[in-house]
User: Which sequence fits this backbone?
C-alpha cells in the first residue's frame, strides 16, 4: 500500500489514476453484466438454481468492493462540499440536447482531416459483429498522448449540479463515424466506440443525443445511461473467451424496439 504526501510526485499520481481508471472500466463491465443477469433472472431463481460456489464468491467480492469504495466515498464527502442540484427545465433539456449534437458534429469535422481508415487487421477482428459497410465508413484518430478537450458547455452542466463525463480520461470518443482515441487504439475501446456509431446511425443523431441527455438527468452518471451500459455490456461480451458471434446492429435494434434506451 502506498501513501502520497507530496503533490509533486506526478509520476506516482499519474500511475495511481491510471490504475484507478482501469479498475473503473472493469467495474463498469461487471456492473453491466450483473444488470443483464438481473433483467433475465430473479434473485430467487439465482439462489435456487445458480451455482452456489459462484454465487458466494460473487457476493463476497461485491461486498468487499462496496466496503472499500464506501470508505473512499466517505472521505470524499468529508473534503468536498455537497453539490447543488435542481431539475432542469424543458428549455434547459432542449439546450443540452442541442449542445451535445452540435459538439459531436463539430468534433467530427475537426478530426476528420487527420483520420484514417481501419486497418485490415482491425476490420477482420470486428467484422463478425459489425457490417462491412460500417467498418469501411469508420475513420480513426490516435492522439498518442494528447487528449480530446472537454466542451465549454460542461461549465453550465456543473452549475446545474451535474458532473459531466471525464472526457480526457476516456479511452475513446465516438463522433458519428469518426472515433478518436485519447491514447492508443485497443480492441475493447474500438468495439465500444463502434457500438455508439451503430446507435447513432440507427437512432439518428438528434434522438441519440436526446435519449443520452434524458437518461443522464435521471441517473446523474454517464456509465448508467442505457446507451453507455449497452456499449459496455456488448464490449464485455466481445472480450469473453467464447466462439459466440453476434450482430451489434441486431442487438441495438432490439433495445430500440423494446424501449430500453
Assistant:
Amino acid at each position: 500500500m502506498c501513501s502520497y504526501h507530496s503533490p509533486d510526485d506526478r509520476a506516482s499520481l499519474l500511475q495511481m489514476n491510471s490504475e484507478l481508471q482501469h479498475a473503473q472500466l472493469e467495474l463498469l463491465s461487471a456492473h453491466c453484466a450483473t444488470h443483464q443477469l438481473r433483467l433475465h433472472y430473479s434473485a430467487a431463481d439465482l439462489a435456487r438454481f445458480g451455482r452456489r460456489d459462484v454465487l458466494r464468491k460473487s457476493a463476497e467480492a461485491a461486498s468487499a468492493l462496496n466496503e472499500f469504495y464506501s470508505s473512499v466515498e466517505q472521505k470524499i464527502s468529508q473534503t468536498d462540499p455537497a453539490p447543488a442540484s435542481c431539475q432542469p427545465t424543458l428549455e434547459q433539456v432542449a439546450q443540452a440536447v442541442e449542445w451535445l449534437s452540435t459538439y459531436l458534429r463539430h468534433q467530427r469535422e475537426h478530426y476528420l482531416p487527420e483520420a484514417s481508415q481501419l486497418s485490415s487487421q482491425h476490420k477482420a477482428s470486428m467484422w463478425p459483429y459489425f457490417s462491412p459497410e460500417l467498418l469501411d465508413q469508420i475513420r480513426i484518430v490516435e492522439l498518442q498522448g494528447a487528449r480530446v478537450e472537454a466542451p465549454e458547455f460542461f461549465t453550465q452542466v456543473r452549475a446545474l449540479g451535474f458532473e459531466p463525463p471525464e472526457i480526457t480520461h476516456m479511452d475513446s470518443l465516438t463522433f458519428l463515424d469518426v472515433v478518436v482515441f485519447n491514447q492508443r487504439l485497443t480492441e475493447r475501446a474500438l468495439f465500444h466506440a463502434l457500438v455508439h456509431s451503430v446507435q447513432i446511425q440507427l437512432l439518428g443523431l438528434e434522438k441519440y443525443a436526446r435519449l443520452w441527455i434524458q437518461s443522464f438527468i435521471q441517473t446523474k452518471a454517464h456509465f448508467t445511461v442505457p446507451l453507455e451500459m449497452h456499449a459496455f455490456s456488448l464490449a464485455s461480451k466481445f472480450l469473453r473467451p467464447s466462439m459466440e458471434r453476434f450482430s451489434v446492429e441486431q442487438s441495438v435494434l432490439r433495445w430500440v424496439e423494446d424501449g430500453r434506451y
Remarks:
- DSSP finds eleven helices and four strands in the chain.
